[in-house]
């Protein structure tokens, strides 16, 4: 009976307004009458919980009495009571979601305090839900995460109970971290988020609790978890020689990166005590024993006492350490790790591994350097926390001996030390220390970071040994310089030795790539201080060693470079690029190369060799030129990014040659002739660039096409200096026939200009002038106002065109301009594919001939450029005729930008040999003067800014507002849908010349509603092409105009 | 509640674009926005049916966690679908899309389905971003586009379900490696041919709507 009544609200009438205190009262009644969850009232309860959330949020924003009532009736306790009945996930999930909604949406601070005030929330947090239900788990962890986002200096006290020294607890944090290695990825992420949210609350007492009670157990478990992950990764690499489990491997690598980023996020919060504990754990239990010790070839040295000690392969170790140095930036950690890798010698390690354990009990702050499971599971450690005071004390003692670092005493000790010896504090003093201090041996010892000293202590180094070590390494005495200190001590430094030995590419460059990565990562980590790298990597800042570099290392790098120039070399492109990157870093100091002549000679020899290698492929493939240019742009566009490289799990697998693995070209060996040619091209570029850098020279011959000499869309051209093969133009060049005729023979015209109609695939027709330059094909739209001038509307390279006649219409040509070949883009959509209709058959044939020849000539010209680069003697005469600067003369602004080209070999000359064409060339000087004279006033001054912009390599279109080009408004600026993108940008420039209003409309038209606007414009363009121009010209040309 | 697949989604976009409201609107229709109350939530799950198969969607809002690089990184990687949301009444939220997309593409697995959502379509009078602009952006970057309103519930259902459909199609095409949970896809407990247990979700299915487990 009770149950059936409950369906109807327990007898109380339900208020009509769901957002009112009355409604909450009604819901309270429902709850109080349904203490027991049953099959029948479950739906009602869920509905009630939802309504409560809604009313509370409404109340939070509108009516504070709602919250008063909620609090007064202690309604959260109903939640708890329902929860404790093990009511199944349906109700549980709704409960948790209601709480989520509550905490997520409450804006009023006071409301939030009300909700948190009676510790019910903490009781809910510690409630043992059925976490095997993934839905409950997900809602629960989201609830905790939502709460953690509400944490601040005030709210923290509701969660962290600081009653007295021993009973304090922090369930939100301790419950959450129990799930740090949950099988569900999203849960783990939520836990990490929560911990970070907790750490960043600035509350000393809470952080003290975290550090003293939870840091050691949590971090040791975390480190163990990460370590096991690494071992799994290593197994995956070992067992996958045939690239079968790329997916699994890439997950494991990504997961490791996630871990490193998480650790880095914690360290970056810069909580000194916490960082100290975390750094200790990382170094002692993971980075040194598992990562660094794996670099050791003679594993037996380390495994004397613990034969089951785990390690990973050298490749994996180098890879992981590279990631560590690329991601982590916490100074003390990174510096210590670097010191251990670069400086520790065999004696330290051998003695250390055995003796550290003996000393272990005495020095409580020391931990074994071992990758070993934590003493107990995290759950257990955390349970201990909540146990009685006595137990807790006991467990604490146990922990402080094993895991936990008594941070307070240690930091105190350090502070004292730091006070007494100013040089020992590793953060600032070293960097600030004046150079003369460094020449003092005592001070030098101090430059080893504090923790290194500690580390060395663990390893049981005697003072004698220390001195010995310092003597070996120290750059102090100038007389030591001639001897290579590295050489001397290398055999005694197993870790460094392994790294340097990995650079030998005996069979392949598998390990070399990782060795390079690690060295590069070490050199680029900002927290590793320069002094430490002094003798290993970077050029020294100190005067006596200023011009010193590590010859052993450079020898090996140059060896890789030399190897990669051989036929069938086993060095991948990525390895070569990284080698060069590292080498440049090592030997370039203040823009100068420190390289000795012998080394420089080796580089030059390698350059010769790479040139010779490429010579074999010259012309051997049809697409050689396309590949050559494509590879060049690839190298320019995508310089090597080491951090990204280290995210790619594919490089962990042995180098392969087959593209079937999906591994990108630069990260594998070439397969087939084409790829070998590509590789040779790239090797050539890379070494050529290195050689130029070392010689402090500037590249003058590449790219083959100097973008500064090319016409771009919307450039304005002076057509009057071209020969017009067009009856149409005669319409508006009044009475020009005679004059033009004379001019032709005067030798003032030098490019071909052929009128034609361009018919696009979709049937659109546009009248254009086809201009064929040395390298480019240009479609020009003549200017109506200024006679003889035109605007380039489409530009393509002659080398990329394809011309075909039309068998039905002898006036037609089918022209395709391909985009430059690109290995990265799979489908090649042509830049232009259209039918060109000429005035008659003769002109059509002439155009076809010009185009076909133009293509051949353009390619020949470039091939001979390559030949020159490769020192291949060419049959083509160089500079037998003056260069064809025809188009440059049309665009006076180019003249200024051309200066730097003078040193270059002159471009090949292309003469018009087609019958019926007359085109002449002129000397440069004539061009300049004549262009000056034919240029209307004001144009000259416009030229220079444009020219400069182009020189800067900006793909600047002529959109400078400084360029007043009087233009007809009837001729729209935009067409050529193929260049829509660039037009959108350009559209803003040219119309502005006409008037600003127009500019605005055009811009919005092209950017947003492009196609429509274009279509309209195209239509108007067609009509405007003949008539308005004619009209426009009339007043100026005395009515002599006649349409043809 | 058994399902054939579980898809994990994330919702990304600037703060205040209504991500959490979309999420709640989709997962719990009880919060019909008849009243002038904006309510959101950071996590939700709901069952849908595609092609006669029960599919569970789990949606995680990543709000408030942008400060930590490790967190955003991990979220992206663990999701099969992403809703990239902007507010049609605030131009800057639209302008930031490129950054969001770059982030997503960099960190996520390449198969992740991204849907572009212009939210708050009910506020047409205050519109700053035209529908066509959203469409153009989506076209340019290969996204599916939709304008929604978490308030009127317009298109909310469709946005989530269309994304699921696309993921489902990719599974049928064999693009997704469904045995790899890191992709944000999980095979339902009884559908999994290989793994009889061990997954977190296997234990407490009984508590679902119809079944009694008290």
TrEMBL record, chain A:
Gene Ontology biological process terms, A to Z: autophagy; endosomal transport; regulation of autophagosome maturation; vacuolar transport
Domain of life: Eukaryota
Gene Ontology CC annotations of this record: Golgi apparatus; late endosome
Basic and acidic residues compositional bias, start-end: 948-974
Alphabetic keyword roster: Autophagy
Bias type Polar residues, positions: 397-411, 928-938
Sequence ranges assigned to domain FPL in this UniProt record: 49-199
Region of interest called Disordered, as start-end residue ranges on this chain: 380-442, 920-974, 987-1044
Every CLEC16A/TT9 C-terminal domain range: 247-728, 750-967
Xref: PANTHER family: PROTEIN CLEC16A
Family per record: Belongs to the CLEC16A/gop-1 family.
The name this protein goes by in its record: Protein CLEC16A homolog isoform X1
Automatic annotation (TrEMBL), chain B:
Compositional bias ranges of the Gly residues kind: 198-214
Taxonomy, superkingdom: Eukaryota
UniProt GO MF annotations: GTP binding; GTPase activity
Protein location: Endomembrane system; Golgi apparatus
Xref: InterPro entries: P-loop_NTPase (IPR027417), Rab_GTPases_membrane_traffic (IPR050209), Small_GTP-bd (IPR005225), Small_GTPase (IPR001806)
Biological process, per Gene Ontology: protein transport; vesicle-mediated transport
Region (Disordered): 190-214
Pfam families, alphabetized: Ras (PF00071)
Topology class, membrane: Lipid-anchor
Keyword terms, alphabetized: ER-Golgi transport, Golgi apparatus, GTP-binding, Lipoprotein, Membrane, Nucleotide-binding, Prenylation, Protein transport, Transport
Keyword GTP-binding: yes
GO cellular component: Golgi apparatus
Major localisation: membrane
UniProt keyword annotation of Ubl conjugation present: no
Family assignment from sequence similarity: Belongs to the small GTPase superfamily. Rab family.
Protein name: Ras-related protein Rab-2
The organism of origin for this protein: Cephus cinctus (Wheat stem sawfly)
Underlying gene: LOC107263262
